[in-house]
Amino acid sequence: MRGFEPAVELPPFPPRRYTCDMRNSSRSGPLRYAVTAILAVTSVLAMTARAQENPANPWTAAQLTQPSAMVAVLANGKGAKPIILQVGFQVLYNSKHIPGSIYAGPASTPEGLEALKRAATKLPKNADIYLYCGCCPIGKCPNIRPAFATLKAMGFTHLHVVMLETSFGKDWVANGYPVAGESAPAH
Q1: Do 53 and 101 touch, CB atoms closer than 8 A?
Q2: Which residues, given as ranges, of the chain have pLDDT below 50?
Q3: Are 179 and 172 in contact (CB under 8 A)?
Q4: For residue 18, which of 33, 45, 78, 157 sits 20 to 30 Å off, Cα-Cα?
């Protein structure tokens, strides 16, 4: 009896290439976790850099103000008082906002932009103006970019963006920075 002969000619299989499979190695656990941690940190840094230096952003990195630096600006009693405009949603402003800030309307709507323009007409063009929203991560915020671009187009020369990376609640309130509003703690 001869060997088995298939009825149909099968194509030859390509030679198997052997690679290092770290999943089966007992010593790869720490290495795998280290690589994962490095990738995670790199990803977070890249997202932060994109939020700060995104070509779609109308501001420069020098125009960003970290929340802790904004607290220092508020505490500084010398010089002209900074102008702080909240360009987010009314319900957020009513709940909690940066003390001394002015509600200027949600800049994501035509009505909100008109309210911002009306508020801005009373301000000197060379005043230090700090904008913030805080409704969501700054990279996705529908309000901060239109507000900044509108004021820049109106000729304001000292614009700043308060860098609320995640939200007003997480980046400002949770850090114990001063707040005002309906749900702010009474002093």
Answers
A1: no
A2: 22, 25, 44-45, 47-53
A3: yes
A4: 33
Query: What's the pLDDT tens digit per position in 157-170?
Result: 999 999 999 999 99
Q: Which residues pair with 85 in a beta bridge?
A: 102, 131
Burial class (CB in 10 A: 0-12, 13-18, 19+), 102: middle
Residue 162 DSSP SS3: strand
Say how far apart CA 26 and CA 32 lie, in whole Å: 11
pTM: 0.69
Compute the C-alpha angle 171/127/130, nearest 5°.
Answer: 10
29 with 36: CB under 8 angstroms? no
Name the class of domain 59-175.
alpha beta
